[in-house]
Amino acid sequence: MIGVMTNCPNPISNEQKPVERIGMASNLDISLKEARSLLEGLRAEDRLAWALEEFGTSFVVTTSFGIQSAVLLNMLKSIRGDSRIPVLWVDTGYLPAETYCYAEELTKLLKLDLRVLQSPISPARMEALHGKLWETGSVEDLEKYHLIRKVKPLETALNELNVGCWASGVRGNQTDHRRSMTWIDHIRGRISLRPLLNWTQKDVFYYMEENALPQHPLFEKGYSTVGDWHSSAPEGAETQGRQTRFGGLKQECGIHLPGMMGEGI
Q1: H/E run at residue 187
Q2: CATH code linked to domain 32-264
Q3: How high is the pLDDT of residue 3?
Q4: 172: Cβ–Cβ under 8 A, 6 or more apart, which residues?
Q5: Are 259 and 250 in contact (CB under 8 A)?
Q6: Contact, 87 vs 167, CB < 8 A?
Q7: How far apart are CA 54 and CA 165, in angstroms?
Q8: Residue 189, by phi and psi: left (phi above 0), alpha (psi -120 to 50) or beta?
Q9: Which residues are identified as catalytic?
């Protein structure tokens, strides 16, 4: 992790800071601030359509096939036309059986161009070398687990596909970090789009009802969020939302954070 220099002789004032641009992957030559302003007034579907138009073949969507995943995937179906937009899914090898079945159902129903991403290190090999990293109660071990099973497989695929922009279904009210997100940000050298950032759980529920989308099987068992089987739990009297994940040690797995290690996991 790079430290902050405290003795810089000529600090850059707010007026002198360079304007952050969208980047070379898009035909647009506008600032992130301008893009955020544009996206603010659009519907979620239109934010997706905007990214597809501007980034073309360098645009992808990521999914976890979690509780709310059907929303973004259904929107993708509605805007893609004849385009084959890759849908990237990180399969850790530790997902609940219900998630694998749900992924199969949505892939067929929505005719997804699904790309399954996995670590080159099998679960059995990882456990032999490092143990069951999620059982130690150590944040450091949990971060190592997420790096091996989630972050690195995703980054490898994003690089191989030359992705300039990827959209995800994160919502601002899910975690402390996500409350600080905007519609569009730079993450690890590429653009991350969050079309559903201002949606609530009610918005998700009613959209799925109106569009006759199937619920994740664990939704009816009290799960409001689901990831790996060992790090997910139904809501209880004292734990709700992302508090039910990772044994309460963390809220994020690292995919939606800016770096690969240190500050990014």
Answers
A1: strand 184-187
A2: 3.40.50.620
A3: 35
A4: 178, 179, 181, 194, 197, 198
A5: no
A6: no
A7: 9
A8: left
A9: 253
First to last CA, the chain: 11
How far is 92 from 225, CA to CA, in rounded Å? Answer: 16
pLDDT score of 98 more than 50: yes
Q: What's the predicted TM-score (pTM) here?
A: 0.79
Structural tokens at position 66 = 């979690």
- DSSP letter for each residue of 227-263: -SGGG-----SS--GGGGSGGGS-S--STTSSSSSGG
Res. 262: pLDDT tops 80: no
Structural domain boundaries of the chain?
Answer: 32-264
The SS3 assignment for 130 reads helix
94 CB-contact burial (10 Å; exposed 0-12 / middle 13-18 / buried 19+): middle
**pLDDT for position 24:** 44
